[in-house]
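Exam revision sheet. Question 4 asks you to relate a sequence to its structure. Input first:
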Amino acid sequence: MSSTRNNSFNEHSKKDANLSDNVFSKKNKQKPENIINWCLKNQINPIVQCILANFYYFGIWVEKDEHKAFMYYQKSAKMCNPKGLFHVGHCYQNGIGVVKDEYKAFIYYKKSAEIG
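Answer key, structure tokens:
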């Protein structure tokens, strides 16, 4: 993956995580642990899965853990969430939280593009 595409992934993921931070804590004056617990209780939503993954990917409110980030991106992808599919592809392409596998990366990127 080119550094430009990798930077784009990081920028978009970081923006999503920061948006979650702003919406959940500053606007509603929620404590980070309450937000994490709420997300953990609402895992049936693929967007929540991506939010949790971003928290672990960047170490926001939790200890950075690329394997957990991959796990939550994968849960979102299994629900056919385009962002989840894209992020799983990124993880496979770069060996983030999972063994690097460019073929699997391609498959997930393709599914993400097909869904939109």
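Marking note for examiners. The chain has six helices and no strands.
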